[in-house]
Amino acid sequence: MEELIFTKIYHGRILSEIYVPTCVENCVCTQVLTLTLVKRVRLLTEVEKIHPLHLGEDPHPHPLHQC
User: What is the pTM of this model?
Assistant: First the structure.
């Protein structure tokens, strides 16, 4: 069973939301998800302008892309 939860983090004065797909009954999935979350939080701290980041998306194509 999967559900979508979100957590909010602060980077400086900027509030960012991270959407996390969770696998309730799968320990391996939870471990992989935790590692992915850590990597993507690090990415958030490296960009100048932080936008909401969905963990289901690939953060690498254009992390500094301005809309």
Answer: 0.27
Domain parsing of the chain, residue ranges: 2-54
pLDDT tens per residue across all 67 residues of the chain: 455 555 565 555 655 666 655 555 555 555 566 666 666 666 655 554 555 555 555 544 444 443 3
Angle at 38 between CA 2 and CA 48, to 5 degrees: 115
Q: What single string gives the DSSP state of each residue in the chain?
A: -EEEEEEEEEETTEEEEEEEEEETT-HHHHHHHHHHHHHHHHHHHHSSS---EETTS-SSS-TT---
